[in-house]
Amino acid sequence: MNWKKVESTVRPEEFDDKSSQVYNYVRKNIEEKQLEEENGTPTVYVYDELAVSKEDWILFNELTESTTRIAEVEDAVIELAEIIEGGE
Fold this sequence. Notes:
Elements: E1 4-8, E2 15-16, E3 23-34, E4 43-53, H1 54-87
Antiparallel strand pairs: 1-4, 2-3, 3-4
């Protein structure tokens, strides 16, 4: 994963899946900074940004859902084993 340091005059969302048709953006370490200029003090946001292709994002979500389901099945099997052992 390659995080990039990015600047913007608009406060970014931590997760953005709407501004691009190709990428989802994950942002962290968002800091607000004031720049001294002749015409006032504009606000700039500096943050780390990761661009993840929408295809990879879908695969990651599917994998996460599968992992959760497997963990739930494992828990159910353990509970059933405890019930069976208790009935003997």
